[in-house]
Design brief:
The protein has about 120 residues and is an alpha+beta fold. The chain has 8 helices and 4 strands, in the order E-H-E-H-H-H-H-H-H-E-E-H. The chain has one domain: 3-Layer(aba) Sandwich (Glutaredoxin), CATH 3.40.30. It is about 50% helix and about 10% strand. Strands 2-1-3-4 form a 4-stranded mixed sheet. The chain starts with a strand and ends with a helix. About 20% of the residues are buried.
């Protein structure tokens, strides 16, 4: 089963969800706002992608951090922050069959993943 993580009102999420629907690809949606994220899931992702890839440094939640928090960001701090504020995780995070992880949305990457 394909699982898509994010928040429903994000424009990038809307693009990813539309692409999946347009290509008749079933998925389960995990809403960070309602369900959060658990540490085991986050650590599994971090075994496949770097924390800097997963941390959204372009969004509103990043800008709300203090200058000191941003300057002192490291893996441990990022993990704690993502657990406390899951909407700071780059969106979407797609987990495909077999555990492949795709962070962010790219039509090209989705096409390669689902239409090889």
């Amino acid at each position: 089963m394909i699982r898509l993580y994010g928040i429903p009102n994000c424009d990038t999420m809307k693009k990813a969800r539309k692409w999946l629907a347009d290509h008749d690809i079933d998925y389960e949606f995990h809403d960070y706002k309602k369900l959060g994220i658990d540490e085991a899931t986050l650590q599994e992702w971090l075994s496949q992608v770097d924390w800097e890839t997963l941390l959204n440094r372009r969004g509103m939640m990043w800008r709300k951090l203090t200058q000191e928090q941003r300057e002192n960001m490291n893996r441990a701090n990022a993990v704690q922050l993502m657990l406390e504020i899951p909407s700071i995780i780059k969106r979407p995070v797609l987990i495909a069959d077999g555990g492949h992880i795709e962070v962010g949305f790219s039509e090209k990457k989705y096409r390669e993943l689902f239409q090889p």
